[in-house]
Amino acid sequence: MQKTLPGTTIAVERIRPEEAETQLASLFLAGGLVLSQVSSLTGLEPYVIQNWVRRGFVAPPERKRYTRRQFSRIVIINMLKDSMQLEKICALLSYVNGDLDDESDDLIDDSQLYRYIVRLAALTEEHPPTGPDEAARWCQTAVSDFSEPVPGARDRVVRCLHVILTAYLAARLKREAEALLAELA
């Protein structure tokens, strides 16, 4: 069964961190993506992305091009919107990155956060966590290479990832329930 990278329309056979890195790195070789490309790669309408920029959820594009960091933010929001309200997603991202339209106060680059999310999503491909304690351990392990810019940053990132992982699993269960319901009809 064909899958997609979390929050994107990018098809992959299996969700694997190294494949995600290869795919995303190649997208940004030319220096950035225009709105139509971001829209195509996320499945979002252009006006939705522009609205998120206008509302301060994503920093404005530079010379009409979105950086990998901005693209990652859009993908993360897109991934979470099926299981969380937009305002709660933004509060969660603010927990680790302060003012969302100001990248200078970030504890973690959104592209690095997305890499951790892909690591966690890949783990769930094998088997979902057995409970919140195992999910928390997975999140702790996922950030093993994280270099703290300030004391306490790692703990904030781990907590944020735990919420993201839980929301990701909830969205997946919701899709599975809807598919089962459709079979009943």
From TrEMBL:
Superkingdom of origin: Bacteria
Residue span, HTH merR-type domain: 32-95
PROSITE patterns: HTH_MERR_2 (PS50937)
SUPFAM superfamilies hit by this protein: Putative DNA-binding domain
Pfam families: DUF1836
Gene3D superfamilies reported for this sequence: 1.10.1660.10
Coiled coil: none
Example GO BP: regulation of DNA-templated transcription
Entry's Gene Ontology molecular function annotations: DNA binding
Name the UniProt record assigns to this protein: DUF1836 domain-containing protein
